[in-house]
Amino acid sequence: MSGGDAKKLVRSPSGLRMVPEHRAARSPFGLDEPPWVPDKECPRCMQCDTKFDFITRKHHCRRCGKCFCDKCCSKKVPLPRMCFVDPVRQCAECALVSQKETEFYDKQLKVLMNGATFFVTLGTSDKSELMVCRLSNNQRYLVLDGDSHYEIEIIQISTVQILTEGFTPGGGNSRAIGMILQYKVPGSEEVMQMKFTAGEDFSCNKKLSAAWLAAMHKVSK
């Protein structure tokens, strides 16, 4: 692990978190912990309106910071976007969102970091280059390696358009065959464009490329 990617274990009121030592190295998918609604400002559950007393205790959702009774905030769900080591207590609404995000972290994010091979065309050029495209280990850059080398910061990407084939107006299956990516050049307002096309020869794994494009589409959302 390089110095820039080093992490440390910290304890917050919500639980243990494994976070980057330097804030600048944090993942663009990360979320800050929310401030908790002060106890004195929530005499009742903010979901079912049950009054708190010695028997009905109040709990704070680790994702939204609101105050709930045990019935409305009983689920403990992984929250990778806040770097929690263990599952943490969340309200029902937040738990559903976190469960969907956990699937993204467990599946799509790993696909992006493993990478796939594409023919990459820069701007309006009529020449393409075969490149391996992957998400960096710290999730901050899209790295492209071939005869050339590019690193595009994820937060600078403005548009992701997935190119498909096989779709018919009456319905039917389509598959991802490429992507058009637009991003800003750091320090200027210039917008660059790259086109990614899955290779048609046997040296390129079409299934892997399609999975990578699908994962990239989820990132853009």
What does this structure look like?
The protein is built from 2 helices and 13 strands, in the order ββββββαβββββββα. The protein is α+β, with helices and mostly antiparallel strands. α1 packs across α2. It is elongated and about 70 Å long. The relative contact order is 0.12. The mean pLDDT is 87. InterPro entries: FYVE-type_Zinc_Finger, ZFYVE21_C, ZFYVE21_C_sf, Znf_FYVE, Znf_FYVE-rel, Znf_FYVE_PHD, Znf_RING/FYVE/PHD.
Q: Can you give me a brief rundown of this structure?
A:
With 221 residues, this protein is an alpha+beta fold.
Name of the CATH architecture of the largest domain: 2-Layer Sandwich
One letter per element, helices H and strands E, the order comes to: EEEEEEHEEEEEEEH
Determine the structural class based on helices, strands and strand pairing: alpha+beta
| Separate helix tally | 2
Q: Whole-Å distance between the termini?
A: 29 Å
Inertia-based shape:
elongated
The percent range for strand residues is 25-35%
Compute the CA-based radius of gyration. 22 Å
Which fold name fills CATH's third level, the topology of the largest domain? Herpes Virus-1
Q: What would the average pLDDT be, to the nearest integer?
A: 87
Sheet bearing the most strands, described?
A: 7 strands, antiparallel
How much helix, percentage-wise, in residues?
10-25%
Number of strands: 13
Assigned CATH superfamily of the largest domain: Zinc/RING finger domain, C3HC4 (zinc finger)
- Indicate the CATH class of the largest domain: Alpha Beta
Spatial arrangement of strands, main beta sheet:
10-9-8-7-13-12-11
- Poorly predicted regions are none
* Count of distinct structural domains: 2
